[in-house]
Amino acid sequence: MFFKKCYVCEESKEFSDFHKSSRNKSGLQSKCKECSSIINKKRYEKNKEQILFSNAVWRDNNRERHRASQRKWKNENTALVNHHTALRRAKKKKATPLWADINRIKYIYAHCQWLNKTFNCNMHVDHIVPLSGKNICGLHIHQNLQVIPAEENIKKNNSFLGGF
Questions:
Q1: Cβ(125)–Cβ(109) under 8 Å?
Q2: Are 127 and 144 in contact (CB under 8 A)?
Q3: pTM over 0.85
Q4: Domain ranges of the chain
């Protein structure tokens, strides 16, 4: 293993703890990732309005490039996108209680994405008891979620087929 000394914290760290740089002979930045993160956070807090303004100007001037970047990120992170979309919908309906286990909910969406990619199938995450059914309303919690084929979910169409 190779080590390099960070000029900020003055600790010797592995090469993997440094960002790449074409400016230095070593091909690595002179400060470690951890120190870079702290410095960048401080800089952002100090210049927040200016940074947000310049980002908005860049987005306006590079609209297509920004959209392409967003599409790429969404395609690479479909489980997270689906999780956030469902969470937003559930919050709008006030269906996610404070005690809901968000990590388990995220896992169910990630598992569904893994099934779709690995086995090339079309699965959906379904609420067993719909969030806004005709006679009953469920919660957005992991016990109320299931991974089922898309056709079944579409056929179900916001109905509750079970009983208590």
A1: yes
A2: yes
A3: no
A4: 17-71, 77-156
